[in-house]
TrEMBL record:
This is Aspartyl/glutamyl-tRNA(Asn/Gln) amidotransferase subunit C. The keyword Membrane does not apply. Its EC number is 6.3.5.-. It holds the Pfam family GatC. NCBIfam families: gatC (TIGR00135). Belongs to the GatC family. GO terms for molecular function: asparaginyl-tRNA synthase (glutamine-hydrolyzing) activity; ATP binding; glutaminyl-tRNA synthase (glutamine-hydrolyzing) activity; transferase activity. Keywords: ATP-binding, Ligase, Nucleotide-binding, Protein biosynthesis, Transferase. The gene is gatC.
Length: 95
């Protein structure tokens, strides 16, 4: 697969980038070099290798839920700019 100047022009237009002619040629060459390098992966023998989504096994490390006492409401509301009935009072966002 090869990228043409027209392809770079099209992508630049989609990305709303202004690219001059000199940079267009340079980008075309650079993108083709990237694709050529990526094509080297096709040379690898992957027979018998199971597909994976990640190179390392992943697992979630989560702590057990445990009931703990909450902070006293007075301490929580101490730095609140405004408070009403034990809750933070904020400006209305809906009319």
């Amino acid at each position: 697969m090869s990228i043409t100047t027209k392809d770079v022009e099209h992508v630049a237009k989609l990305a709303r980038l202004q690219v001059n002619e000199a940079d267009m040629e340079k980008l075309t060459g650079q993108l083709n070099a990237i694709l050529k390098y990526a094509e080297k992966l096709n040379e690898l023998d992957t027979e018998g290798i199971e597909p994976t989504s990640h190179p390392m096994p992943l697992s979630n490390v989560m702590r057990e839920d445990e009931v703990r006492p909450s902070w006293p409401i007075e301490s929580v509301l101490k730095n609140a700019p405004d408070e009403e009935d034990g809750q933070f009072k904020v400006p209305a966002v809906l009319e």
